[in-house]
């Protein structure tokens, strides 16, 4: 009789343990990861949230759209967003410099969006005249990137700066006497009718109906000089150690997701899977 009681107790204990394990598994599988993004990046993450890749990784992704980069990084630092995907490595570097108490870390790479020089008045770089008025982003990251593109093309020369950023005040040589018109990066496309040309990020170009491969007269290429312009997934140092957050990078580079990005954005987002250490070289 005592044996039966012990046996019955053992069965009940086993069932409780099994139930606990199952509950824990369900909770782990249903744990939500909040990804902050904006524009076309938010569109990509909404697709990922519904993808088979996310389901297989047991990720429940909720996309939170915040259309101001600084506010989005702050939300990520403060914890209302678990990770974000919208910015380049150089943009994050600039943000971390200005916000030493809320620094974020890079989880992995996503793609390079080639920045381009666009014109509604000229069809080639050779046609661009001296003294041309060129619209350029006024934020440090995009202005640096724009000027470096012009330097790579041999149109200007920049002074070397200690922190590797550059502004229109750092011109060492401007043989064509270009006049730079500084505006918010989101409005460069809107002023193309008023300038000879404008340096536009790919996201803004896409939203304005422009294709960097077909419509620009000059654009970035994926090489060593553009490594820091590769877009990334970022998180706070604390969140970057969470297993479910680490899975975001792996899910992003699944074949079905890559096909979706290529087809949806006309191959203008050049997918890059590089070690984070490469961005620091």
Description of the molecule:
InterPro entries: Lipoprotein_NlpA (IPR004872). This is NLPA lipoprotein. There is one protein chain. With 281 residues, the chain is an alpha/beta fold. It folds into two domains: 31-112 and 229-280, Periplasmic binding protein-like II (D-Maltodextrin-Binding Protein, domain 2, 3-Layer(aba) Sandwich); 116-220, Periplasmic binding protein-like II (D-Maltodextrin-Binding Protein, domain 2), CATH 3.40.190.10. It contains ten helices and 13 strands. The strands form three sheets. Strands 2-1-3-12-4-13 form a six-stranded mixed beta sheet, with helices on both faces. A five-stranded mixed beta sheet has the order 9-6-10-5-11. Strands 7-8 form a two-stranded antiparallel sheet.
What is the CATH-assigned architecture of the largest domain?
A: 3-Layer(aba) Sandwich
**CATH superfamily grouping of the largest domain:** Periplasmic binding protein-like II
> Spans of 5+ residues with little confidence (pLDDT < 50)?
21-28
How large is the count of helical segments?
A: 10
- Total beta strand runs: 13
CATH topology of the largest domain: D-Maltodextrin-Binding Protein, domain 2
Q: What's the domain count?
A: 2
User: What is the global morphology?
Assistant: globular
**Protein structure class:** alpha/beta
- Order of the strands making up the biggest sheet: 2-1-3-12-4-13
InterPro entries: Lipoprotein_NlpA
Subcellular location: Membrane
Protein name: NLPA lipoprotein
Membrane topology: Lipid-anchor
